[in-house]
Every structure is written in structure tokens, then in C-alpha cells.
Design goal:
- With about 100 residues, this protein is an alpha+beta fold.
- The protein folds into two domains: about 40 residues, no CATH class; about 45 residues, no CATH class.
- The longest helix is centred in the N-terminal third of the chain and has 25 residues.
- It starts with 7 loop residues before the first helix and ends with a strand.
- This is Autotransproter heptosyltransferase TibC/BAHTCr-like N-terminal domain-containing protein.
- Pfam families: TibC_1st (PF21129).
- InterPro entries: TibC/BAHTCr-like_N.
- It comes from Gluconobacter oxydans (strain 621H).
Length: about 100
């Protein structure tokens, strides 16, 4: 279990390295006046990260992503709703 917890020195070193890399990319951006090509956000996982019932996978990276497993018979019926806002369906898709 000691391997999982980082020592304060390791955290400081990692933070310093990240800050140095960030300042270098900012300096490059200022030099040529163009933002770097690097995306400031992490790329989402190749498949949605949350697993629901019956093998359904979903997440909300770059919008709502849902993967429905193949069915032996019948079809999926998926409805995504904004339960905190208007409660209207955001996506209604049959024959999935």
C-alpha cells in the first residue's frame, strides 16, 4: 500500500515538472503569436467509462456517449433527457 501513496517530495517534483512544461509551451506561444497545436484537455477514453446494466457503457466526454451491446433479439430504445433542466428528450433514437 506504500507504493500507492506518493511522498510529498514526489508530488512537488511532479508539480514542478508540469509547471515547467506549461511555461515552455506558453513561451513558444508568445514567440510566434500562435497557440500551440496541443489540446489543453485530456482526450476522452476510447470507449465510455461508466458501465450501466446489461453492458451499456456511457459517459459525458465530448457530449453524451452511449455504447449499446449487440442484442440476440429485439432492438434497443435509447432516450437521453436533461433531468435538471427542461426535462425534454435530448436524443430520441429507435431501432438502435
Amino acid at each position: 500500500m506504500g507504493d500507492v501513496i506518493q511522498t510529498p517530495d514526489a508530488v512537488v517534483e511532479a508539480s514542478a515538472a508540469a509547471a515547467e512544461q506549461s511555461s515552455v509551451s506558453s513561451a513558444e506561444e508568445k514567440k510566434d503569436g500562435k497557440p500551440g497545436d496541443k489540446n489543453p484537455f485530456l482526450d476522452p477514453a476510447p470507449i465510455p467509462v461508466f458501465e450501466g446494466p446489461r453492458g451499456i457503457r456511457f459517459d459525458f466526454n465530448q457530449g453524451a456517449r452511449v455504447i449499446l451491446p449487440a442484442r440476440e433479439s429485439g432492438q434497443w430504445h435509447a432516450v437521453l433527457r436533461d433531468l435538471e433542466g427542461s426535462k425534454n428528450p435530448l436524443v430520441l433514437r429507435s431501432s438502435v
